[in-house]
Design brief:
Structural class: mainly alpha
Helix content: over 70%
Largest sheet: none
Number of helices: 9
Radius of gyration: 15 Å
Shape: globular
Length: 148
């Protein structure tokens, strides 16, 4: 199997080379997969969404967290980008991930994508064991208040 470097991934991002990024996602290296998922979010095409959605089920928490961030970024830029129900369900499931960085990214992603509509889903995580996750919920609530 071909190996890749972060420089190659950066070049793929600049070239909007989705096929190259998909090849990187087939690697077993956590760092490279995470960088490929981040690049997909920065490429910003609707074609990336289905691959980012697959990355939500990756074995590595860092890949899941960056996939959540990328989906949140893409979806907040264009509400027509995200197939709402399926993506929302997957993100809500990740609110219960055992890794706090994934829970944190899920709170951020939900609040970016769905705004105040996400309150019922994220509010219970004010009681999360991790202070960063709690802070993400407080930040989202503060942003909703400022948007009014």
């Amino acid at each position: 199997m071909e190996t890749y470097s972060s420089t190659q991934i950066d070049q793929m991002k600049l070239d909007k080379d989705l096929n190259g990024l998909l090849k990187v996602l087939q690697q077993s290296d956590e760092f490279l997969k995470k960088e490929a998922v981040r690049a997909m979010g920065q490429v910003g095409t609707t074609a990336c969404i289905k691959y980012l959605e697959k990355a939500l089920k990756d074995e590595y928490p860092s890949v899941r967290a960056v996939a959540l961030q990328s989906i949140g970024t893409l979806g907040s830029q264009d509400e027509n980008t995200i197939p709402e129900d399926r993506i929302k369900e997957n993100i809500i499931n990740l609110l219960h991930d055992k890794n706090w960085t994934v829970r944190y990214a899920a709170v951020e992603s939900l609040s970016l994508l769905y705004g105040e509509e996400s309150l019922d889903d994220i509010t219970p995580f004010l009681l999360d064991e991790n202070p960063h996750v709690k802070e993400a919920v407080f930040q989202a609530m503060d942003n909703f208040r400022k948007e009014k």
